[in-house]
Design brief:
alpha/beta; binds uridine-diphosphate-2(N-acetylglucosaminyl) butyric acid; single chain; four-stranded mixed β-sheet; 478 residues
Length: 478
């Protein structure tokens, strides 16, 4: 069956082009701004100062929405960020037969309202007794996280077809651990015409699974399958991210029996059914980390609220090594940098290591630090692709495999650059604040996929930002 894409909630800010195949921005036939791309221009020599509030984590809320599929009835997830990816996940669930409504968070936290628009919402999900069983490619290619409907639908219905998401701008992204884990639980899985097809006509059974790598997505899919499987499961070498703890907390509130969340070993006793739930999304540590690095790079002073600072322990410790002052209290922290940062080495690793999603910010910091930094990426093979854009801003970066040597410069130089993914886009905008003159970052709909109104937050922190459009460079390839 084919569908034409509707954006489920027009009150969610979605830039033109953000929902098109590959998220390539405006330019389809019939679009009035046919040759324009979405841009943000920032003036350099800026300093971030003030307070910014962070709402729920994209990478949690997306999975919490999928987890709601496990129980018929109405689940409500609060503190959900107003970003494009959530709108797409809403559409995935709607096409599976769920009712989806985005409501104001209750109560609305005044900290999350800017210009009369709240950054977070509640999503009300009405899950039918018999949801659909197919997630098609036109949505999955826009939102790789759609793959997380695989586990819950297979567990509940015994059959599911989900389009294979393929790789993306940060690298090749396998599904082998999702597939081998579900196979251990008794599923039969095949690939056909770009779809992953999984069936378990007699239901799933518990299994002992050792992951080759603590994959976030595989851990989530396998937990969501195991909660309704017959008998006990053990997932070893499981991911330990706060978002994993969040989904396990929600599942336990729904009646699941999971222990060990936040450690490398998850024990799950399958139960015959789950009940709907109301759950608040954990704060977004990657958005919080973006502001922390922004404060350090611009020699600013930023207080971030809404996230547990312990989730960023390694990242904040790097900023201290770079010469920053970091204060933490409750669910807030403050980062102040008075002098030019000192170069620090960074190695990305699964949680609690330094998050790969903060790699562009680490490169940005290194690019303006005093000295040379060795940055090592261990999670995604294409994460350094965006380094070429950073070099257009004058950054001195040499990459070799999964290492980059960055020699810091006193100052970068403003230029037009292109956002290739969510985090690269945010990293380039922040780097532009440390450049001389104006930096124009194009294809910023990528940033809207993960940051609710990034431009407004920048303005609130005292920098000059101008969203707009610019002519698309002609494609001269033959
Ligand atoms: N991998 C495999 N086989 C698998 C599963 C993963 O080879 O079966 C590989 C991947 O190819 C990758 C590595 O393992 O090289 C890590 O993948 P993981 O499964 O941990 O990542 P993910 O679930 O696909 C989530 C976040 C990413 C974040 C990573 C790592 C969501 C929606 N995405 O991806 O976030 O970088 O975990 O922390 O939760 C972002 O928000 O911009 C983003 C990319």
């Amino acid at each position: 069956m084919t569908h034409s894409l509707r954006i489920p909630d027009l009150t969610i800010p979605v830039r033109p082009g953000a929902l098109r195949p590959g998220g390539v921005g405006p330019g389809d036939a019939g679009d009035p701004a046919v040759n324009d791309v979405d841009v943000i221009r920032v003036r350099g020599d800026a300093r971030l100062a003030g307070t910014v509030h962070v709402v729920g984590a994209k990478n949690s809320a997306l999975k919490l929405m999928a987890a709601a599929l496990l129980a018929p009835g109405r689940s409500v997830i609060t503190n959900v960020p107003r970003i494009t990816d959530i709108a797409i996940m809403g559409e995935v669930l709607r096409r599976l037969g769920c009712g989806i409504r985005f409501d104001a968070d209750d109560p609305v936290d005044p900290m999350v309202v800017h210009g009369g628009v709240a950054r977070s919402r509640s999503v009300v999900i009405d899950v039918p007794e018999q949801p659909g069983t197919e997630a098609d490619y036109d949505l999955v290619r826009r939102l790789r996280a759609s793959i997380c409907v695989l586990g819950p639908l297979l567990a509940r219905l015994g059959y599911v077809r989900v389009a294979h998401p393929g790789g993306d701008a940060i690298g090749s992204r396998g599904l082998d651990m999702h597939i081998s884990g579900l196979t251990r639980m008794g599923a039969e899985i095949s690939g056909e015409h770009g779809f992953v097809i999984a069936s378990a006509p007699h239901g799933l059974h518990g299994a002992e699974i050792m992951l080759d790598f603590p994959s976030v997505g595989a851990t989530e899919n396998l937990v969501m399958a195991a909660v309704l499987a017959r008998g006990a499961s053990v997932i070893d070498n499981a991911a330990r991210e706060p978002e994993i703890v969040d989904i396990c907390t929600m599942l336990n509130q729904m009646g699941a029996r999971i222990s060990g969340a936040g450690t490398s070993t998850l024990h799950i006793e399958g139960v015959p059914g789950l009940r709907p739930v109301r759950h608040a999304t954990v704060g977004d540590r990657i958005v919080a980390g973006t502001w922390a690095f922004g404060a350090a790079m611009t020699r600013g002073d930023v207080t971030v609220t809404g996230v547990e600072p312990g989730f960023l322990e390694v990242a904040l410790d790097k900023l201290v090594s770079a010469g920053g002052l970091v204060e933490t209290r409750g669910d807030a922290f403050r980062v102040r940098m008075d002098d030019r940062p000192k170069a620090v080495d960074v190695v990305t690793l699964p949680y609690p290591g330094f998050a790969t999603d903060l790699l562009p910010m680490a490169i940005g910091l290194a690019a303006v630090s005093d000295g040379a930094s060795l940055i090592t990426e261990n999670i995604f093979d294409g994460r350094f692709m965006f380094a070429n854009e950073m070099m257009r801003l004058g950054a001195d970066i040499k990459t070799d495999g999964h290492h980059a040597v960055v020699r810091g410069r006193e100052r970068l130089s403003g230029a037009p650059v292109r956002a290739t993914d969510i985090r690269a886009g945010a990293g380039l905008i922040i780097a532009g604040l440390c450049a001389e003159g104006v930096t124009e970052v194009s294809h910023v709909h990528h940033v809207d996929r993960g940051y609710p109104d990034f431009a407004a937050d920048l303005r609130a922190l005292g920098v000059e930002v101008e969203p707009g459009t610019a002519p698309e460079e002609p494609d001269l390839t033959i």
